[in-house]
Amino acid sequence: MTTKFRRIGVLTSGGDSPGMNATIRAVTRAALENGVEVMGIYEGYKGLMEGNMKLFSERDVSNILNHGGTILYSARSPEFKTEEGMARAVAVCEKNQIDGIVAIGGDGTFRGATDLTLRGIPCIGLPGTIDNDITATDYSIGYDTAMNTVIEMVDRLRDTCESHARCDVVEVMGRNAGYIALNTGVAVGASIIVVDEIAFDEDAAIERVIEAKNNGKRNFIVIVAEGCEGFAEPFAKRFEQKTGIETKFARLAHVVRGGSPTLRDRVLAAQMGKEAVDLLLDGKSNLVVCIHEDKICSMDIGYALILDRMYKGKLKDGDLDAFSSEQAAEMREFCRVKAEQFRDLYNTAYLISK
Ligand code: ADP
Q1: Above 90 in pLDDT, residue 312?
Q2: Residues 6+ apart with CB under 8 A from 330
Q3: 125 lines ligand 1 (CB under 6 A)
Q4: What is the mean pLDDT of the chain?
Q5: Which of 117, 232, 234, 341 has its CA 20 to 30 Å from the CA of residue 29?
Q6: pLDDT by residue (tens digit) across 90-123?
Q7: Distance 89 CA to ligand 1 centre (A)
Q8: What does the pLDDT average to over 80-87?
Q9: Residue 132, ligand 1, Cβ within 6 A
Q10: For residue 144, how far is its CA from the centre of ligand 1 (angstroms)?
Q11: Best substitution site from 80, 82, 118 to test ligand 1's pocket, by max atoms within 8 Å of Cβ?
């Protein structure tokens, strides 16, 4: 451990997710065990700029790991993105002897972490979002809980669909990513899954539903990803007209962002929180902690953000300039495997949907 670290800050930023509290607890306790003080920073980067913070003891993070939301609260701060905002944040860190920060959130949060690192405050990012839309990691903290909430709710809808021979078209969160929709669609035995990543053949899907109906099937669940903006509700109407099955529409929005984290999210929070502290105290910075093939690892934030754009087909001119041709090839392979796994699961879901 370098002697540099007297005190680190921890903050949650961007959209909240179940498991953020378990992460705050893990970061706090791991740092204190290493003789490093912990400043809990309220309301993300906004609170950092404003000096809204409190020195945490072990007891300040007692009895929080099973609670949803974040005891540090979250906020979005456009002001932080400005030079003036950054300078304020750095000055607050210096005044409060904060030598490094663990920032829990999504892409935007990591960009902020890079900006702070460049200005002399080493940061480590932890992926906290239900959407799982951070390409670098197989799982983000909160994703598993959100999916379990979706399946609990849709299982209930299915009960009543079966009684009344109905369909429920359910739109689920996930921002532009279809991970929640695809995985919960498989888990609830959806007849149809619609995600933005894969072209949807409506006629073929409807035909399969009619075949299943004629074969005695009574309950129908359609899961649509939030990323397919404006699709779900009108589709419910078309579905009813084309199949003759009475169809309801439901949107599971922020209800799946709350609640007690699952075992998987709690374990991930513990592992990632400890890793973030280890990395900081090892003198590392500008990294996002990830889990890949069941191993906790980390990735340079700059690399992770470009990888993310590549996966989402949003690369801009010059994005790859800072990387070697080997790194670019490695990124392409990473994205190829990830997209293939996604498509394989989609195909499996389709195969067993009737
Ligand atoms: P998420 O972290 O979930 O992606 P946001 O995109 O809203 O959520 O980002 C959270 C916060 O991170 C923003 O309110 C802002 O303070 C900071 N942030 C976002 N983008 C940047 C950026 N490009 N540079 C610096 N800070 C940023």
Answers
A1: yes
A2: none
A3: no
A4: 97
A5: 117
A6: 999 999 999 999 999 999 999 999 999 999 999 9
A7: 14
A8: 96
A9: no
A10: 23
A11: 80
CATH of 144-258+340-351, one of 3.40.640.10, 3.40.50.2000, 3.30.390.10, 3.40.50.460: 3.40.50.460
User: Any idea where the domains of the chain sit in the sequence?
Assistant: 7-142+261-314, 144-258+340-351
Q: How confident is the model at residue 65 (pLDDT cuts 50, 70, 90)?
A: very high
The answer to whether residues 142 and 133 touch, using CB atoms and an 8 Å cutoff, is no
With contact defined as beta carbons under 8 Å apart, do 227 and 176 qualify? yes
Provide the CA 345 distance to its chain's centre, in angstroms: 19
Distances (CA, A) of 177 to 24, 55, 224, 259, 308: 26, 37, 11, 21, 11
CB 109 near ligand 1, within 6 Å: yes
CATH for the 7-142+261-314 domain, from 1.10.1370.40, 1.10.3720.10, 3.40.1790.10, 3.40.50.450? 3.40.50.450
